[in-house]
Amino acid sequence: MGGATAKIIKKKMAAAGKDPGPLHLIADLPGRMGAEAAASFTEFYDEKCQLAETEPAYFANLNEVLADYAGKSGIYHFRYNIDKDFIVVLDLETAMRAAGWSLGGSKELPDPLPESVSAIDRRLAKKLAVRSAELIFSNADKAGVARGGVELMASGDDPRRFDFTDDKQRVVCATYSVKTLDEEVLGTIRIIAPERVTVAMRDYYEKAVPLAEEKWKRDLMKLAAMSSVALRADLTEEDITLGMLMDLAPGQVIDLSTATIDEIKVYSALPTESKLSIDAALGNRDGARALRIKSVAY
C-alpha cells in the first residue's frame, strides 16, 4: 500500500503542473541538440567542428540563468512559431571569435581579451547566433525540440529585456562546448528555452500528463475501494438522569422506550464531512444479526 500510494502521489504532483522531478525527460537533450549546434559552427567557420564536454541540461528561472552572463556574453533573443521565445548565449570567447570571423575571416582572439562583449561585437557575432538558432529550432529534423520559423527579436546584456513572461519564467538551459577536429576550443554556446520547447517536455505536458491524470483517478478509486471504513449503527437513543448514569453497574437493566429494528441509521464511526445517509433494518442471516440497507443518500 505504501509503495502504491507514493507512486500515485508522485503522478498527481506531475499532473498538477509541478516539475516532473528528475531531469531524465530532457537528459538526452544536449546530445540531440549538440550535433545541430556543432553544425552551425561548422557552417559558420567553414571548418568541421565537434561537440566537446557538455554540461547537463537543467531547469531554472530565467533571471537566474541570465544573471551570470549579463554584460559579459552575447545574448540573443529569438522567437519561433510567432509567439514562442528562446535565447542563444555565446560566451565571451565564442562571441569574439565570431565577431573576428565576420569582420576579417579570423578566429584569433583579440589580445588583450575584453571583459565583455560590446554592442558592435554582438552585431558582428549575430550571424553565428542566427545560424545556430535556425539549425536547432527551424531546420533540424532530429534536434529534439519543437520546430518553428525563427526570428531574431533583440540582443543585449540586460536580463530584463529577455523576460518571456516575467522573471519567474521557468526555462531549460542546455550548454555545449564546441571545438574543431584539431581540438581547438572555439567556445561555448547556451540555449535557454521555455521548458515546453523540448519535444520531451512538450510530449510530457500534452500526452503524459493527461494520461497520468486519468490513471491517477483510476488508481485512486481502486485505492479508495480497498480502504477500511468503520461503520456504526444506532438502534436508539435514550435519555437518563445523571444520577442513574452514576449508579450504573453490571447486571443493571435499562428500559428502551423508543427502540426499533426497522429504522436504524448507519454512518461512519470517524468524524467526516460526508453527507452520506444510510437507512437500514435489523434482521438475521445465517444465524447472526445483520443489517438490510433500505436507502442510501449522498
Number of domains: 2
What do the pLDDT scores average to?
76
Distance between the termini: 28 Å
| DSSP E strands, number | 11
- Put simply, the count of helices is 7
Query: Radius of gyration from the CA trace?
Result: 34 Å
| DSSP helix fraction | 25-40%
Shape summary: rod-shaped
Order of helical and strand elements:
HHEEHEEHHEEEHEHEEE
What oligomeric state best describes the polypeptide chains here? Answer: single chain
The main β sheet shows up as:
7 strands, antiparallel
Spans of at least 5 consecutive residues whose pLDDT stays below 50 are: 13-27
CATH topology of the largest domain: Chemotaxis protein chec
Helical/strand content category: alpha+beta
- CATH architectural grouping of the largest domain: 3-Layer(aba) Sandwich
Report strand %: 25-35%
- Text of the CATH class of the largest domain: Alpha Beta
Give structural attributes.
rod-shaped, 26% strand, 7 helices, 298 residues, alpha+beta, four-stranded antiparallel β-sheet
